[in-house]
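Lab notebook: predicted structure, single chain.

Context: the supervisor wants predicted structures on file for every construct in the current expression panel, including those that have not yet been purified. This is the next one on the list. No modifications to the sequence; it matches the entry in the shared construct table.
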Amino acid sequence: MTITSVFYYIIIAGIILSFLALFSYYIVIVSYFIWYFIKENYSLPAVAKFRQKSGTWLKTKGTLWLKGIHLLCGACWAGAAFSMVAVSCLAATKATSDETFRMATLCLKLLDDVIIVPTALASVSTGILFSLLTRWGFFKYYWVAIKWVIAIWSVIFGLFILRPWVNELAAAAQIQGMRILSDPAFQCYSPRNFILGMVQLTLLVTQIFISVLKPWKKINGHL
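Prediction complete. Output recorded below exactly as produced.
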């Protein structure tokens, strides 16, 4: 095992441990909400009662925790997307051996499987709870509606375009090594996916700033 391999494994281990810590917090807060609604027999009035009890407008610890976890999941999602863009660029331009290139493509797959997928699902699910249990709703404000458009687009793009590409690249790299860089299919799809990945990364970062700044007013009449 080379120093490069050890370095990659240390990075992946750190990412996995960070995600496990985040996921434990996420499980606690979601379990609390599930327990409450089970206690209330799943009744719809439980939503209004919960909001009244917990204090709307994000004044209680429960909703503040939910907000913090939602933002943290979004930040992890964006951070992993940035890492994937960076690793893919380095793999294509700086790899000097088949072993290094294979390790880089495996890192891409691990980032996608271990970080992107769970944090994207956690971000969307906490967003649903946040919209449901607070005054912001789903389509009452422009900034919330735009965030949902970004989230849905990012999930669809990641699920149907980026994820299959990463899986195929990692599998092919294990067989061909750096020879895949000269493959016509790779040369055709790699620039397109890189551009789309940069667009997704930009939108995910924008989504974080939108969450903090809340820049647009209420939608007249809602949707």
